[in-house]
Amino acid sequence: MSTITSIRQMAADRDDLVEDTGSSIYERLRDDIIHGRVKANERLKVAELASRMGTSTNPVREALQQLRGEGFVIMTPNRGARVRPIDEEFVRDICEIEVLIEPALTRWFVGIATQADIDELERLQAEIEALNFGDEMKHSNLDLQFHRLMYDRHYNRHAVDLWVRHRHILWAISRGFPTSLSRQSNVLDEHRELIACIKAQDAEGAARAIGRHVEGSGRHIIERMRLGRHAV
Amino acid sequence: MSTITSIRQMAADRDDLVEDTGSSIYERLRDDIIHGRVKANERLKVAELASRMGTSTNPVREALQQLRGEGFVIMTPNRGARVRPIDEEFVRDICEIEVLIEPALTRWFVGIATQADIDELERLQAEIEALNFGDEMKHSNLDLQFHRLMYDRHYNRHAVDLWVRHRHILWAISRGFPTSLSRQSNVLDEHRELIACIKAQDAEGAARAIGRHVEGSGRHIIERMRLGRHAV
DNA sequence: AACTTTCAGATCGTACATTCTTTGTCAATA
DNA sequence: TATTGACAAAGAATGTACGATCTGAAAGTT
Questions:
Q1: Which chain C nucleotides are covered by protein, judged by CB under 7 A?
Q2: Structural domains of chain B in order of their starting residue, each with its CATH number
Q3: If you placed Cys at B11, which of A5, B16, B54, B138 could pair as Cys (CB 3.0 to 4.6 Å)?
Q4: What is the pTM of this model?
């Protein structure tokens, strides 16, 4: 037993110098694409990436295939992979889809919400307001919990998965961007209105509120992208 | 060398009875999953698949990664891939998403449609009616052209890609299933109503029509799945 | 009975071979 | 002389083979 753990430890130590923070090749590549560290439509050469990542070509190839499945790279036969541009259009497209999906998920939630759910939403909202955008990471987590509480029990797993993926992407893009004061107050307002509608069993109102929420969030991200072009 | 070719030949011969029409490994795997030829949650072993496909393991691995990106298989580290169940729920989930997306795409199309577009739609519709569901493949192609004409120029490439993917999946599932007479007439009616709304510049009406179209199509596929559970 | 050891089966990583694309050079022609 | 075409060689993607590592379960040991 001790031998096994020591071997594992050695492997971990050996990789520390290449800074392998548990992040897989897939995640590193995706992050590079989302944050624009690789230019749009740039060609991704397997051998080059492999040497950069400190591995052989196979893991890179598989990561690229996965990214292709998710639409982050575009592959043409015998001609390799190119990065799909992650620009304002991309964000707008995703947000427009979410403007369609999230209201539907929310409408359904209004029908099944219990008092306990509402209490939990208000508790999270109170925590968010108390934090007041002090810690980006914590806020993001609370916000995630807030929306997850509404969507996680939905029967349409496919739609929820889509939402999760889109949220990951948007979060990765907007990470590091500061949230404007105006957007901050809007976020709080929209959450409060959402809770009020759920309390009043007003499904349509809740749907409209979440629609505005998503749209405002998207607009804010796009504005930030236009300003600070990757303040990594 | 001759040994290798003979081995390949053997593998090819063995698979000829499963019809190897030059289709890629990815497509074959995806087809197997969509058509339920591999059971839900079944484990997919690369070596086994490789020999079945008559190739080495690497192409299979990459195909699996791509399928993972698209959500058809679920992979856990060092533990391989499992099949994501493709059942009525899956179809319902996809259709519900399309019920949200396609009306939005259609609404936009009404705003940019030219007389030439309408003429082309009517031409395609006339062809569809003339064919009258005689040739499944031809009908599918015409129907694809019909909807593609409306969606292809949309600015939201992400939404259109999603539509294309979903349509491929649904088509793969419903291939081989006969279309009931009632559904046939409904399809024609819905197309006609759609064209009428576009002519009249009635965006909302067109959106409602396409919504009913998608919903009816989904319902029909699910009914067929319930009936012919193994008409492979 | 619980824990450890062992081993087969499968995944993951590396190295190499093959095939296709692309690029650059050189000669032939207008 | 400039342009085009063929052709060779480099570059890169795809496929094959094999070794290393991990998992799961069945054996044996205390």
A1: 4-5, 9-16, 20-22
A2: 2-83 (1.10.10.10), 88-227 (1.20.120.530)
A3: B54
A4: 0.84
